[in-house]
Structures are given as C-alpha cells and as structure tokens.
Amino acid sequence: MRKTLILALIFGIVAALALPPIYLLPALWISLPGLIWLIGRAGSWKQAGLIGLTFGFGLNVVGLYWITEPILIEAAQFWWLVPFAVPGLALAVGVFTAVPAALAWFAPSGLPRLLVLAGTWTLADLALQFVFTGFPWNFWGTDVAIPGLIGTVLIQPAAWIGVLGLTLCIVFVASLPALGLRGFATSLVLMIGWAVVGGLRLSSAKPAAPAAIIGVIQGDGTAEFVSDRTAAVALFRRYLALSAKAVAEAQANNPKNLPIILLWPETASPFQLQTDAGARQAIAETVGPDVTVIAGMLRFGADGQSIYNSMGVLRGPGPLLASYDKWHLVPFGEYQPAWLPLQILPGEGFSRGTGPTTLHVPGIPPVGPIICYESVFSGQIIKESDRPDWIALSTNDAWFGNSSGPRQHLAAGRMRAVEEGLPLARAANTGISAIFDASGREEMRLGLGRQGNLVAPLPGRLPPTLFAYWGLWAPAVLAILTTLLGLLLVFRLRRLERS
C-alpha cells in the first residue's frame, strides 16, 4: 500500500501541471488513467478513498502553494502558519477527491468506473463550492482556459454547462486511455469534437454593439498599502494620475461620443468616498464631471461599526451614485468563521453584503459588480432576475505575489464571462488586469508589476446563456445523469454475469 500511495501522490503532482498558468493538459491523460489503475488495485473502498485523498493532496499542495504568499506578508504575526497552511488546506480539499475515488471503486473496471468517477468528481467539486464557506478554486474546467485562441475555443461549452460541466468532460475524456488503445482513440475524437463545437459557437456569436468606453486602471501598489496610510494615499494619487491619462486616451479615440467609465481595483481609495467630499472632489477634478468612476473602497454601515469591502460609483463631486458590498468574504482573510474556535483575525473583520446585484447608474450600461474572491464562485455572481450588460471585477492580487495565484484567479474570471455571456473588465491593483469579451476572448491585458491602464470600447453582451438560465443545476444534473449511467451499466454487467 505504501508504494501505491507514493504513486498516487506522484500522479496528483503531475495532474497539477495542467492547472493555470502551466496548462499542460497532457498531464491529465497520464495522471487520471494512473488514478483509475490505482483504484482498481485497491483492496477495499477505504483503500480507494485513501488513494484519492493522497492524489488530491499532491494535486493541491502544488496547485495551492501560493497560499503562503499572503501569510509571509504578515510573517511577524503569522509565521507559525507557514508550515501548516498549504498542507492543511490541501488535505482538507483532498477529501473531495477521496469520496469520488471510493465510490468509483464499487463500479467494475472499464466504462462504468470512468462514468462514476467523472460524475461523482463533479458533484464533489460542486459540494466544495458550498461546504465550510466554499473554496471553488482550481476546478479542472479551468485547465482548458489556455491563453489565446485554443483556450477561447475550448471554454465555449461553459456557456451551457459551466466550469463544473467542463470539469466532468475533462475527467471523463482524460480517463479514457485507461481503457486501452481504443479508449485513447475515443478520447482524441472527443477532444476534436469538443474543439469543433467550441469553434462553431465562437464563430456564431453576435454580441451587442459597444455602449461605453472602459478604462481599467492598474496602480501596482504593494499589499502593505492596506495597513500603511502613507502608502495608501500615495497610491491614491497614482490612481488619479493614471486616470487622467486614461480619460485623455478615451476622449481621443471616441468618435461616437460613448460614455467613459473608469474601473479602479479593490480598496484603491483609502478615503471613505461615501462621506469624504474632498476625495470625491479630487477625483472629479482629475477625470472631469462626465466620467463615471467605479472605485474599490471601504464603507462603514449606518451603525458606524460594521465595515464593508465595497465598490462605489461616482460621477462628479456629489454623493455616490451607487455602491456594492462584497458578500462572499475570504475566510481568515476578511472574517473569522464562527465554526472555528481558534481566533486568528483581530476583531470581527468585514461585514457581509446582501448578495449579487445589478447597479443601474444613469448614463452607463447596467453593471454586475464583483470583488476579488467572488469571481471564483461559478453561478453565484450575477442577479439573473435583473441581468446586467457587463461585469466589473475589482481585485487586489498583490497578496499573491508573483505566483500562480494571480494567473489562476484571472482564469476564473475569464470563465465567468463565458458562463454568463457578458463582457468582463478586471482591474487588479498589481496585475493582472484585463478586458474579456462575452465569449471569453481576451481583448487587452496588463501584466503583473506594471503601472498603466487599458482603454478600449466595452465589448457588447451576448443573449443569456443556457448556464445563465439554469446556473449550477446544469452541471449538477449532468453529473447525476453521468453517475446514473455508470450505475446502469454496472447493473447490466452484473445481470449478464448472472445469466
């Protein structure tokens, strides 16, 4: 069993090579058949579950190593967490790999086992989005979000089945070589079919005409600006200077006189914009009275005690036109989960907003705001009953350093654009800022560690996608049907054996 677990760990590490930003997809065609083989060698479902846990541990230790980065920023206080954070989180997430492996053991080898594994793997990932506040990071569906045309083609089915549906497809197709040469050939044919379907959808997409000019501002401030008032004010002034340049560029390339919108990153303003008239005046004097600015900020509640991680919308020096409060907070980063008795964060942290919303601001297209971590929650970012025309994502990825974290976070945001059929503008304090159209095609990008702006016509929306209508029910039903098909084949094989 010891050698088996070592192999499971190796296969898990190999599988992590397919994650962003490496995108080495062939690694899954090695690691998944390897996992299937190891499950078949297990003497019991408990051993199979342990194999799955070990596989998931290897996968997530590599895929989540960047978790150490924000801890190191506060190393003086949290140094003791460094050796435990990544292995502990990898072990916890690995449980959601152990369950599908254990259930797949009950199915006989061959197609039934592949179907049960693919279906239950997807259901486990769906559970991972909700259990213990949820941590839907690095779903295998994002492995096909490869930068460039090939990735844009392969992510198109997410408009129907979401990133979790793509995960199911990946698990099944990459496992097929476990069936031998015929399985490998079938896998190749299915991948070609996948690309053809994606290409057809991409070529037939007819988005609405641009209704605004978007300027995405990236100031490249270090994570310390959150607690260093002097650094925060200096960064605010930098955002003013970059915004002035973005407005000049937008005005020079705006023959249709479209409204101009500037998007600042998370907590870009150290001032309370809802009450600080001086800060609003400074922004208005910099960008002009007709430019709309959507800025990350902090906001105090009416009680004067609760504090929210927010986005404020302003035009001119007057009161805010609208605001949005982040509702999917980062556990241990923005609040202390009640179910953990160990106190890690000082105080009570941030208060929670009311959920996804659409901001209707006169003069600009209706916008669906999301802040940082919220962008990884498939099917939970848009108020579908009041559908916006675009998504504004503000984040501060300086916490992740120059690691895989910002790249993985970017890939998640791109998937949300495809799922919802909405263009997405992403402003990241230190990168990666980007503009995606409603098909997930990257229009512009500003990389890590750079100051600057992205100015372009805001891509138009597409009609509501199937995923926009069905949400997480789409991949859930697909996963259940896949699992039931596997079980049906199991019963059929056993009936044939009896006869």
UniProtKB/TrEMBL annotation:
<feature type="domain" description="CN hydrolase">
    <location>
        <begin position="217"/>
        <end position="460"/>
    </location>
</feature>
<dbReference type="Pfam" id="PF20154">
    <property type="entry name" value="LNT_N"/>
</dbReference>
<feature type="transmembrane region" description="Helical">
    <location>
        <begin position="50"/>
        <end position="68"/>
    </location>
</feature>
<keyword id="KW-0808">Transferase</keyword>
<dbReference type="GO" id="GO:0042158">
    <property type="term" value="P:lipoprotein biosynthetic process"/>
</dbReference>
<comment type="pathway">
    <text>Protein modification; lipoprotein biosynthesis (N-acyl transfer).</text>
</comment>
<dbReference type="GO" id="GO:0016410">
    <property type="term" value="F:N-acyltransferase activity"/>
</dbReference>
<keyword id="KW-0472">Membrane</keyword>
<comment type="similarity">
    <text>Belongs to the CN hydrolase family. Apolipoprotein N-acyltransferase subfamily.</text>
</comment>
<feature type="transmembrane region" description="Helical">
    <location>
        <begin position="467"/>
        <end position="491"/>
    </location>
</feature>
<feature type="transmembrane region" description="Helical">
    <location>
        <begin position="114"/>
        <end position="137"/>
    </location>
</feature>
<keyword id="KW-1003">Cell membrane</keyword>
<dbReference type="InterPro" id="IPR045378">
    <property type="entry name" value="LNT_N"/>
</dbReference>
<feature type="transmembrane region" description="Helical">
    <location>
        <begin position="80"/>
        <end position="107"/>
    </location>
</feature>
<dbReference type="Pfam" id="PF00795">
    <property type="entry name" value="CN_hydrolase"/>
</dbReference>
<feature type="transmembrane region" description="Helical">
    <location>
        <begin position="157"/>
        <end position="176"/>
    </location>
</feature>
<comment type="function">
    <text>Catalyzes the phospholipid dependent N-acylation of the N-terminal cysteine of apolipoprotein, the last step in lipoprotein maturation.</text>
</comment>
<protein>
    <recommendedName>
        <fullName>Apolipoprotein N-acyltransferase</fullName>
        <ecNumber>2.3.1.269</ecNumber>
    </recommendedName>
</protein>
<keyword id="KW-0812">Transmembrane</keyword>
<dbReference type="InterPro" id="IPR004563">
    <property type="entry name" value="Apolipo_AcylTrfase"/>
</dbReference>
<dbReference type="GO" id="GO:0005886">
    <property type="term" value="C:plasma membrane"/>
</dbReference>
<keyword id="KW-1133">Transmembrane helix</keyword>
<keyword id="KW-0012">Acyltransferase</keyword>
<dbReference type="InterPro" id="IPR003010">
    <property type="entry name" value="C-N_Hydrolase"/>
</dbReference>
<dbReference type="InterPro" id="IPR036526">
    <property type="entry name" value="C-N_Hydrolase_sf"/>
</dbReference>
